[in-house]
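User: Good morning. I'm curious how iron/sulfur cluster would be positioned relative to this chain. Could you predict the structure with it bound?
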Amino acid sequence: MYMPARYQEKKADGTVRCLLCPQVCLLQENETGLCHTRKNLNGTLYTMAYGNPCSVSMDPIEKKPLFHFHPGENILSLATAGCNFHCANCQNWQISQASPEELPHYRLTPHEIIDMALSYHTGLIAFTYTEPTVFYEYMYDIAVLAHEKEMKTVMVSNGYINREPLLDLCPYLDAANIDLKCFDNASYKQLTSGNLHPVLRTLKTLKENNIWLEITSLLIPGYNDSAEMIGKMCAWLVENGFSDTPLHFSRFFPTYRLTDRPATPEKSLLQAKMIAEHAGIKYVYIGNLPHLRGENTFCPHCNNLLVERQGFNVVTNRLTGGKCNVCGEKIAGVWE
Ligand code: SF4
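Assistant: Good morning! Here's the predicted structure, ligand included:
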């Protein structure tokens, strides 16, 4: 279903500029944006990503990953096709690098998504798998309805969204996990086709608007796993008030167009965790390497094991009213 897109600037010559994300595509008649979801038809921008999700599933919320937001609960998770990045290592490239019309999809209105979540007895909905920014209008309408029903919404995103649409969404958004892919603009551009600065602005905007935030950094050997780059990233996070924001270092496996390098060595992940903790980040996790048990939550004050996880499953949760059950330290998060 084509819907008029939000955040567009129509030009006198029939071209139209999309203002949704920092790619700011200028589209000729019949041209589609970099994200494969927005098209100029007769001088008006339309989204092709509305009501036609290609993926709808129930997931543990730990899979997003969100570790400090309703741990152990299931969340209805959905995506349409499309993405405004073209990451060489995309794990979901079959759906992210396609147009919604090219792929088999469901037909689900925002009301039907809400009803589906309720039928699965969850009050949580995640926009995930691809890049939710490119199905913004669908996400927004679902999020507004979700809040009317006192449900909560989560965006799992590359953070590549302009400030105005993000601010408009914030009142209807409860949590986000943002990918911070590296901390060097040239590498960012090379890896993703986007720039670093807008992602940092998104992190700040989400924090300023009290959206619960967690950050994921996939460590790719030779791209972003140097001690220097991780040190710079963690220093920026601490200087900008993200010490309490959980940081997930995740293991890379060769995939898609990035098969010329090995999986991330265990020692790189451990080094990154050490650098982050030394910089002052309180909750640092290691993902995609189960035997390290890097998914557990510890009290940053007394080091008591608070939330024990095996993969995406919560085995034990010892938090009491959002506090450490031993020393009473308040643990940042949304626990109940
Ligand atoms: S949302 Fe899509 S069409 Fe719009 S600027 Fe970004 S990549 Fe281009």
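The CA atoms of residues 125 and 322 lie 22 Å apart. Residues 18, 20-21, 23-25, 33-35, 38, 84, 134 surround iron/sulfur cluster (CB under 6 Å).
Let me know if you'd like a different ligand tried.
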